[in-house]
Amino acid sequence: MPAYSYDPQPFVRPPELDGGRTGAPVAIVGAGPVGLAMAIDLALQGVRSVVLDDNNVVSVGSRAICWAKRTLEIFDRLGVGERMLAKGVTWKVGRLFHGETEVYSFDLLPEDGHKYPAFINLQQYYVEQYLLDRAKEFPDLIDLRFLSKVTGHHAREDGVTLTVETPEGAYDLRADWLLACDGANSATRRRMGLAFAGQTFEEQFLIADIEMAESPFAQGQPERWFWFDPSFHPGKSALLHMQPDDIYRIDLQLDPGADAKAEATEEKVIPRIRAIVGDRPFRLDWLSVYRFRCIRLDRFVQGRVIFVGDSAHVVSPFGARGGNGGIQDADNLGWKLAAVVKGAAGPALIASYDEERGHGAAENILNSARSTNFMTPKTPVEALFRHETLRLAHDHPFARRLINSGRLSLPCSLAGLSLQTPGEGRVGEPMVDAPVGEGWLLPLLHGAFTLVGFGDIALPDLGLRRVGIGQSARDYPTYDDRTGHALQRYGTGLAYLVRPDGHAAAVFRGRVDPQALDAALSRAMGRDCERAMA
Amino acid sequence: MSAQQMGLGARGDEFYEALMAAHDGLSEAESHALNARLVLLLANRIGDVDALKDLLVVARSCG
């Protein structure tokens, strides 16, 4: 067990066991990062949910540790970003070694003017703890039910009935929507017999977390170090990351036929770690063995049951695309489900979650399958090409770009998908941060539909939140382009319609035509698709 | 395009994947033959014999 001090959550007797009813429209199965983020997002929009988890502690083991800038910006909107940043280990440089020689390094955020860094490393148990603390700030909107195992569900056209088993008996829970945030082994998905298809890789990886006071990194600066064929682990790959509390994550590739149980023992692991960290004293904190998989559901929306996070798609871990992908799922679904629950939008908006996050999952799977294939050559000719790529990389920069030790999570663009109005510039992309006024741009744009204008462009009043950047005084709030980053990143004379999740839904140059804005807003709310369906 | 330039741009991973896929299911001898054909096809596409000679020197010197 990790040194982290687990705080068991109490079982609270729910009203259903005494003939009562909660009346919350949304049931969330799974209190991991995705389920908790979902509940907080809905609560911020006044939508009640019940969160059910069969366990009563946060993540056992550090599990997902790399949280990308985009995820931190979502966490910021949920009210936990700054706490995550304060505790997390900030890093942005990755180094790649072939044998003992460094062949390549990359900087994931070479520019400043952003509130959040490229990445932080933070153990999943802290992420869950901070989300749980935040969820408890909404006692009237989030009903947290631990030691509550969902053992069955029955979906109807207008809702779902769940069977829940608890230490004090079983009960039925009715909800309008069931969000399956129950992870890679989703019991909800299994019950429904849905195909979870894709590529499973033969190789296994061993994760070891060690606590060690002395940093192995140069000048103690945390980075991501990846080795192909190091002398301490010949013919295989290895990865090193730093986490808070002086804990280091080491990933070691094992032989395809390796016996996972035998590998995850101190006798086998300690000599391998010793070979990496030398004589530095360390303590083993947590061990795990996993196999790479790149698999997904065909459709994430199944009537009133919606799959979010690992229950919908699983990727291999070297791109940090699992946890980050799951939080982006929640971010995408939150405002849509809230609008539908409140009667402000129809089922087409929910269908757009499947379209947009299906696109995100496909991109994540494509990238992580490529990385995994590069890391685990399956034939002599694949091994030959990889070896020669690594060898060329010592002297030839082009070959360094072919080395694939994981392409780290970047937000996907939603350009060309149903809700976005085609246009120039950043349409479909998440808005990029910049220092404005006394604070930052993104908090001004997130959480509600917003019309933001940069420089010389006037924003008409259609009842939407309006924000001006680098503009003279108007009848709406304006902010200085404090460091020049905003206009440098966005240009001048442009306005964007921004969705509550921060993606640009439409762009206007020179002038915002009220009719065009109204049409873009209607499209972003799924009303065009609604009409097409009718 | 010298060996120092980034001719593949942002699509290097896509090319590498396609190259591996081209070899999928072949025996080592068949892969060897495919590589030979591919070198000849690429040489014809590049066309510049002086540039090709430079690349032969670079490839050989790594060995």
TrEMBL record, chain A:
Domain FAD-binding: 25-362
Keyword Membrane attributed: no
Molecular function per GO: FAD binding; oxidoreductase activity, acting on paired donors, with incorporation or reduction of molecular oxygen, NAD(P)H as one donor, and incorporation of one atom of oxygen
Pfam families linked: FAD_binding_3 (PF01494)
Keyword entries, A-Z: FAD, Flavoprotein
SUPFAM superfamilies for the chain: FAD/NAD(P)-binding domain
Cofactor(s) needed by this chain: FAD
Domain of life: Bacteria
Listed name of the protein: 3-(3-hydroxy-phenyl)propionate hydroxylase
Protein species of origin: Salipiger marinus
Automatic annotation (TrEMBL), chain B:
Superkingdom, natural source: Bacteria
Pfam families: DUF2783 (PF10932)
Matches recorded under InterPro entries: DUF2783
Record's protein name: DUF2783 domain-containing protein
Organism name: Salipiger marinus
